[in-house]
Design goal:
By secondary structure, this protein is of the alpha+beta class. It contains two helices and four strands, in the order βαβαββ.
């Protein structure tokens, strides 16, 4: 099938959040992907990052519950079709 892109992780230091840096990074990732014939981006996204990704057209495929030490963490497998 066509190549797919997995966005492993993307973080912006707390002192620099809210300045559009994550948006610039994501747009560059998408530009690079399209340039390289990648038609779909997938990522495992935290609860706090979910609204950001939804704003840019990513949709939740799967809600995942993970246990880390004694905590139960929720994250989301999100995707975006680029074409």
């Amino acid at each position: 099938g066509p190549p797919q892109g997995y966005l492993h992780s993307m973080f912006v230091h707390k002192d620099f959040q809210g300045k559009g840096i994550a948006t610039l990074l994501l747009k560059e990732i998408e530009r690079y992907a399209m340039e390289n014939k990648i038609v779909r981006i997938t990522s495992e996204v935290s609860i706090t990052a979910r609204p950001f990704f939804e704003k840019w057209g990513y949709t939740v495929e799967i809600e995942q519950k993970r246990k880390a030490n004694q905590l139960c963490l929720t994250n989301y497998w999100m995707t975006k079709e680029l074409i």
